[in-house]
What does this fold into?
Amino acid sequence: MTEEILRLEGLRKSFGSAEILRGIDLSVGRGETIVVIGASGSGKSTLLRCVNFLELPSAGRIQFEGRPIGQEGPGGAVRYVESELCRVRARIGMVFQQFNLFPHMTAIENVMEGPVTVLDRPRPQARTQALALLDKVGLADKADSYPSRLSGGQQQRVAIARALAMEPVVMLFDEATSALDPELVGEVLRTMLALSEEGMTMMIVTHELGFAYHVADRVLFLHEGLIHEQGTPRDVLLNPRQARTREFLDGHGQFRLPGS
Ligand SMILES: Nc1ncnc2c1ncn2[C@@H]1O[C@H](COP(=O)(O)OP(=O)(O)OP(=O)(O)O)[C@@H](O)[C@H]1O
Ligand SMILES: [Mg+2]
It folds into this structure.
């Protein structure tokens, strides 16, 4: 494998007495695109949220760019320091189902905000970079539009540009197209596919299995808080070995191979 960017070892997460992630081991290489699938409630969002420490793991270890995050104390409990978590979060981009753009800022101001406030970039430099990113997601002509004047697909592409402006090492997508009207899904998926082809390291939660087949280097099927099956898209999506995976896929009748 190429250089390891992210490593999860025995990752567990509980909410109260409910253990949602029950021991996830995963190594993600630079440039890899991983798609996570699984039934509602299987822990997909929780997994992504642990990766960028929006949720703190209950147990296990996360290594990011070769460094274990947090300090392991006696007894193995890991203590997390907020300043370290902020540094890690700043290097991981996340795009959610809801775009959460700042409504009082134009598209370009939304994209500039992180670099200016978090990375202390001079505004002219941040503006130039933001314009290049809006161009990359096909929205250079919407730079001065407010979110309320953009379609859902356009807003989501601004949200992607905003995440990219922080120059992340990894991008996480949690059902980035689930809130969109069907005719707007394609433009966002194409943007994600282009990013993947450029070599961005990505973890994607999606129910768009045709897209998953196309974009993924590896597909993980999450079931009851564990990676129940993983492999190439061809293996997992077309020739699953596990009965649970087959059952899940059978429930997604709309799955079409690209080009079919
Ligand atoms: N902050 C929280 N507090 C308590 N329970 C939570 C919390 N976040 C998630 N859960 C529970 O953890 C389980 C897994 O949730 P998660 O959102 O990770 O599932 P998911 O696979 O993303 O599902 P979906 O496909 O519906 O988005 C669910 O039972 C959920 O209710
Ligand atoms: Mg979810």
